[in-house]
């Protein structure tokens, strides 16, 4: 089983950097701990994951709409939401080297104690540290202008609840979705983009009548699992649901079920669903004085809706997608380039692959480059393409396999005579001879538009 391989994570990190998916952040200045840049291919892959999410969660659901809020909101939002008070991690400090660690991560603490071999390590009492990033509006750092970088995207969906309800003429049950950056000043522990201080969350708040929340919860739980297996095409055996015990629930949640992925460093969380009840709307009503209640048409009484919240960690999902797609095989593309024992193929779905089609002229002769460029100009209006005329054709195929490109179009010397090209399929390695004039139709059938 590849998952047991200790070095799979190292292979992913190396591939991600070598092929332009994920770079260490601020590298020329020595980096910044647990900060990463998405390179050109990582950016495409991320965009594809994000677009697929939006399509399934917003576009294909008449009961959903999307919004886009700011990272900095009125500070009162975070008082009302409980984040100023409760959004904390318990930390202990090593009395030898003063490093701070999560008091509840006993494994990490034990690991750290090993670094002081032979010495008895003492820790301070656990103390709660707030995870909100603080910053200041205006030019003075006085307390009146303190604001926070949002710790979750959810709050805009609550503060805009009434505006969305009225402007979009929605009736309950309905939901509001958002994708955006969130910030948590927490202890980060490596594993590439798995845990970073800023990250992209895709989440939705689904508003229902109290009493209908348990049913909506079950429905979204199924919908979320389908998204992972049917839409993202992650392997079923690498996904599992974990129900959180009552004493581990967040301050706003009545029930939480997380989705875990089988990472090389162990099973860990990539998504979750919380039943936030009427906690947030109630607090915003109390603090703002706004009427965020909904009128029940039958009884003509007002009530505060309950909220079911599916959340997806998009960066973690991208990491899971890369790991799930990674495969190695023995020299499957032939022996023409001699020494290459192991070949890597990223078996990404066609929807997610950053580059859909590579266009490869067999030689750099004008008679091949001209038609190849013409094909590129036609195809890249519809799909992300990559043009590559360097190195041997075998090497170029392997480069494309390594970044998960589903199709390679080769322009060869026959092309000049038969006005046709060879299309190679990444997974079957089958080659089709296709007329240039039929290429558009050929790919329309094979690729998502
Ligand atoms: Zn220490």
From TrEMBL:
Keywords: Aminoacyl-tRNA synthetase, ATP-binding, Cytoplasm, Ligase, Nucleotide-binding, Protein biosynthesis. It comes from the Bacteria. GO terms for cellular component: cytoplasm; extracellular exosome; microvesicle. The keyword Thylakoid does not apply. It is an enzyme of class 6 (ligase). GO terms for biological process: diadenosine tetraphosphate biosynthetic process; glycyl-tRNA aminoacylation. One of its GO terms (molecular function) is ATP binding. It holds the Pfam family HGTP_anticodon. InterPro entries: aa-tRNA-synt_IIb (IPR002314), aa-tRNA-synth_II (IPR006195), aa-tRNA-synth_II/BPL/LPL (IPR045864), Anticodon-bd (IPR004154), Anticodon-bd_dom_sf (IPR036621), Gly-tRNA_synthase/POLG2 (IPR027031), GlyRS-like_core (IPR033731), tRNA-synt_gly (IPR002315). The keyword Thylakoid does not apply. Its EC number is 6.1.1.14. Residues 10-354 form the Aminoacyl-transfer RNA synthetases class-II family profile domain. NCBIfam families: glyS_dimeric, PRK04173.1. Belongs to the class-II aminoacyl-tRNA synthetase family. PANTHER family: DNA POLYMERASE SUBUNIT GAMMA-2, MITOCHONDRIAL, GLYCYL-TRNA SYNTHETASE/DNA POLYMERASE SUBUNIT GAMMA-2. This is glycine--tRNA ligase. It comes from Candidatus Doudnabacteria bacterium RIFCSPHIGHO2_01_FULL_45_18.
């Amino acid at each position: 089983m590849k998952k047991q391989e200790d070095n799979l994570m190292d292979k992913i990190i190396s591939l991600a950097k070598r092929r332009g998916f994920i770079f260490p952040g601020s590298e020329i200045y020595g980096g910044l701990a647990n900060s990463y840049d998405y390179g050109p291919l990582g950016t495409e892959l991320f965009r594809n994951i994000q677009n697929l999410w939006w399509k399934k969660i917003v576009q294909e659901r008449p009961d959903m709409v999307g919004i886009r809020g700011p990272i900095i909101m009125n500070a009162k939002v975070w008082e009302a939401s409980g984040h100023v008070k409760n959004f904390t991690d318990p930390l202990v400090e090593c009395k030898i080297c003063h490093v701070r660690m999560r008091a509840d991560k006993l494994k990490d603490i034990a690991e750290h104690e090993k670094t002081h071999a032979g010495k008895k390590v003492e820790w301070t009492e656990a103390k709660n540290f707030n995870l909100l990033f603080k910053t200041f509006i205006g030019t003075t750092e006085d307390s009146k202008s303190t604001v926070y970088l949002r710790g979750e995207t959810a709050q805009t969906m609550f503060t805009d609840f009434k505006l969305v309800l009225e402007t979009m003429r929605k009736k309950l049950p309905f939901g509001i979705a958002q994708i955006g950056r969130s910030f948590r000043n927490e202890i980060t522990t490596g594993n590439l983009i798995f845990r970073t201080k800023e990250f992209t969350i895709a989440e939705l708040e689904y508003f229902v009548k109290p009493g209908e929340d348990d049913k909506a919860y079950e429905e979204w739980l199924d919908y979320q699992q389908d998204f992972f297996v049917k839409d993202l095409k992650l392997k079923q055996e690498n996904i599992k649901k974990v129900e959180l015990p009552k004493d581990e629930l967040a301050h706003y949640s009545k029930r939480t079920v997380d989705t875990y992925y089988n990472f090389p460093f162990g099973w860990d969380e990539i998504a979750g669903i919380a039943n936030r009840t009427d906690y947030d709307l109630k607090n915003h009503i109390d603090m703002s004085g706004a009427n965020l209640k909904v009128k029940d048409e039958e009884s003509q009484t007002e009530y505060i809706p309950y909220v079911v919240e599916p959340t997806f960690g998009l960066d973690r999902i991208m990491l899971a997608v890369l790991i799930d797609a990674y495969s190695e095989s023995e020299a499957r593309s032939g022996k023409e380039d001699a020494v290459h024992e192991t070949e890597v193929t990223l078996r990404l779905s066609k929807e997610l692959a950053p580059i859909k089609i590579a266009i490869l002229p067999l030689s750099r002769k004008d008679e091949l480059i001209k038609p190849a460029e013409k094909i590129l100009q036609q195809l890249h209006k519809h799909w992300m393409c990559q043009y590559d005329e360097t190195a041997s054709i075998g090497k170029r195929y392997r480069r494309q396999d390594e970044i998960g490109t589903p199709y390679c179009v080769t322009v060869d010397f026959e092309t000049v005579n038969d006005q046709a090209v060879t299309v190679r399929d990444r997974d079957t390695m089958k080659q089709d001879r296709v007329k240039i004039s039929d290429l558009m139709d050929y790919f329309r059938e094979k690729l998502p538009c």
